[in-house]
Amino acid sequence: MQPYELSLAAAAEAIRTRRLSPVELVDSVLDRIEQVEPRLDAYVTVVAEQARLAAREAEREAAQGRYRGPLHGIPAGLKDLIDVAGSPTTASSRVRAGHRAASDSTVAARLRAAGAILVGKTHTHEFAYGLTTPQTNNAWDRGRVAGGSSGGSAVAVASGAATFALGTDTGGSIRVPAALNGVVGLKPTYGLVPRHGVTSLSWSLDHVGPITRTVEDAAVVLTALAGHDPRDPASLATPAVDHRPGAGSDLTGLCVGLPRTYYFDQADAEVEAAVRRAIAQLEALGARLIEIDIPMTRYIQATQWGLMVPEATAYHESTLRTVPERYQADVRILLEAGELMGAGDYLRAQRSRTLMRREWARILEEVDVIAAPTVPTTAVRAGEETITWSDGAVESVSDAFVRLSSPANITGVPALSVPVGHDTAGLPIGMQLLGRPLGERVLLRIGHAYEQAQPARALAPVA
Fold first, then answer.
1. Of 149, 159, 202, 398, which is the active-site residue?
2. Confidence label for 248 from pLDDT (cuts 50, 70 and 90)
3. What residue ranges define each of the domains in the chain, with the CATH number in brackets?
4. What is the reported pLDDT for 354?
5. The one catalytic residue among 21, 79, 93, 153
6. Which of 411-414's residues contact partners 24+ apart within 8 Å by CB, and which partners?
7. Tens digits of per-residue pLDDT, 285-318?
8. Is position 159 annotated as part of the catalytic site?
9. Does the annotation count 149 as an active-site position?
10. Is residue 173 among the annotated active site residues?
C-alpha cells in the first residue's frame, strides 16, 4: 500500500510511531496528484513546494518530540472559498481574478496549528452556487458529474489526491459530492465550525465541514475545527469535545428513524435498496428502527430557495452590477433572479424555517438519528440537466440533488453522508444520517459502527 492510500487515522498513527514521515506522505500525495489531476481536475492550484517545505518542518518537529496531534503532517485540500494567507481565493470565478487573501480563515488557522499541510485549493461550483462542479470529473467515472459545490474536495479525497479536505455546505454541498464519489462528508451543526474567512453563499445556511475517507477521519478533523470564534456572528460557544468514536460497534439503545415520507418517495431503485440494506445493518448492530413522518415536506424546496436566493444576491450585489459578464451564465441567472424576490417572500421563508425547526426538534426527541439516502440517484452524466423518474416525472438535476440534503441546512441539524455501496454501473451510493443539534458524537458513532461492519473501501480506480 502506498502512503497516499492510507486513511487519515492510519497515516496519523504511522507518523506518531515514526513508521511514516510527513515527507513520505506528502510526496506520495503530490505524486498522486500529478498522476490523476490531468484526468480529474480537482484542484484550482497545487502548492507542491510549499507543502514539501511544511512536511520537512513537520518531520523535524516529530523528531524533536513536538508532535501536534493526529493532523500532524497530514496533507489536506481546501475548497477555494476558504482563505489561506497570501494565497488566492478564486471561488472558481473570473470575478475573483487577482484576489489574494490577507489572512487565514479560522479553519485554515486551526488546521495549520494542528499540523495539517495544505497541498492545494480545490474547485467549487462558481461561488458554491450549484450542485455539479462542472470543471471537475467524478472520481469513479470521468464522464459523470462530481457533484457540488465541493466537488473538487470530494474528488481529491476519493482519488488519493488529498488525505482529507474541507468543503462548505449550503444545501448539500459537502454531502452530495461525498455521496457521488464514495467518501464521507459531514455537515456539522450550524455554528459549530466558524466561517470567518470563508466566502459566503447564503449566511443563514452556510456550513464548513470535512470530507474524508472514513467516519473516524471526519471525527478527527471536526475535533480540530470546532469551537467558538466571535468573528462569526453565528458561532456557538460550545465546550471543546473529542468527537472521535470509540472502537465498539454495538448500537444497542439507539433509535434510528426510518422515514415513511419524503426521503424515499422519489429515488432510484438501486439507491433505495442500498440504503435500506445499510439501515438493516444498523438494526443488526442493535439499533431500534422507528418509522417516522417527515414534517412540512411541501415547504422544503420553497424554504431552501426562498432563503438562499435573496441572501446570495445580496452578497453579490456590487459585483453583479459592475462586472456581471464575469459570472458563468448559470450563476448570473440565479443571482439576477434573486433581485426579483420581494421582502415578503424572504420573510415567509424565515417563518417557515422557524416552524420546520420546531417540528424537527419534536421528531428528534423520539429518535436519535434519521437515516435516509443522501442523494436520490447516483452521479448523472456531465451535461445532463434533468432526471426522469420511473413514474415519468421530470426533475432538474439541481433540484434532485438538493432535495434530500437541504432539510439539514434549513433546520441546522448535523448530517453525515456515509458510502453504502455501488449501483450496477459501479457508481457510489451514500446514506445520510441526520441528528440532533450538537449531536455529532452520536452521528459519528453510528456511522463508524456501520463502517466497522463492512469490508474496507478502496480508493476510486481512476483510469
1. 149
2. confident
3. 3-299+343-452 (3.90.1300.10)
4. 98
5. 79
6. 411/353, 411/356, 411/357, 411/360, 412/189, 412/190, 412/191, 412/357, 412/437, 413/189, 413/360, 413/364, 413/437, 413/439, 414/186, 414/187, 414/188, 414/189, 414/192, 414/438, 414/439, 414/440, 414/443
7. 999 999 999 999 999 999 999 999 999 999 999 9
8. no
9. yes
10. yes
